[in-house]
Amino acid sequence: MNSNVALERIDIDDGATDPMRIAAEIHRQLGEIPGPVPIYDIARALDIDEIKTKPLKNFEGMLLTQPERDFGTVLLNSLASPQRRNYSLAHELGHFLCGWHVPTEDAGFSCSQRDMASPSGGARHVKQEREANQFAIELLAPPRLVKPYLRRLPDLEHVLSMHGALDISKAAAARRYVELHKEPLAVIFAKNDEFIYTVRGSQFPWIGLKEGDPLPILPSVSLEAGTSEMTETDRRDWLIRVPSVELAVQVFTQENGHAIILLHAASAEEDEGY
User: Fold this and answer.
1) 121-160 residue pLDDT tens
2) What is the pTM (predicted TM-score) of this model?
3) What's phi and psi for 92, nearest 5 deg?
């Protein structure tokens, strides 16, 4: 990573009206850099003066700072993967730069894995966590760097390629992929064949599953491949309202029973490629 990243904090603070504008200003100053984005160097250049790692049971990241945001210390979960720690650092940097964010705990900002996926709790907490997530993904996976992976038919192999090239977690890559792809997509995160949560693209229909529900039958995955083929599935098993679409499903299996599931809602004409 380039240790000579120089950023003008005053220009970033002047435009700090929403997370996307903050991330855009950072990238404007960085220029057309290739991925992965040097998040540690960026954090240090923006007055995060200490970044520590420590085994954490209930949190992925913590930010200690003052209301003035003159400096900050970030603690990351050493038990998490390097890619997840990248995202956690970007998330905490989002809290730091969004000066209107207020800690919801006395110890500062303490963010769980759920906060970085599908936050719950009080309205202020949820809003702040969503904004920190929005900042993190805009910083680590800006549209310019994601665009090359969106040019072909939807496929989890493209998500895995993004994960490697941008040095972000598979989950973060999958969420970004469905948000930016022109096709109507959704990604479901599951464990032990049970639904945990979903992220839908803007064009994708509502999914009729809630946390803990058993999943419909999924396509088989060979040990060698890791991902299944994209296979037609019955839309009535997945959707709360059943529009006239052809639904296809693909699954990527992970350790400890975790799975990432990609759903593609397409017209009959578009579905001919599967």
Assistant:
1) 889 899 999 999 999 999 999 999 999 999 999 999 999 9
2) 0.89
3) -65, -35
**Which two tokens mark 199?**
């992220």
* C-alpha distances in Å from residue 120, one per residue of 111, 116, 246: 11, 10, 32
Query: Average per-residue pLDDT in the chain?
Result: 92
C-alpha neighbours within 13 Å on the C-beta side of residue 83 = 16
Q: How far apart are CA 137 and CA 109, in angstroms?
A: 18
Share of the chain above pLDDT 90, in %: 81
pLDDT at 27 over 90: yes
Provide DSSP, 1-17.
--TT----HHHHHHTTT
Burial class (CB in 10 A: 0-12, 13-18, 19+), 156: buried
- Sequence-distant (6+) residues with CB within 8 A of 10 are none
261 beta partners:
188, 251
Helices 19-30 and 82-97 pack at an angle, to 10 degrees, of 110
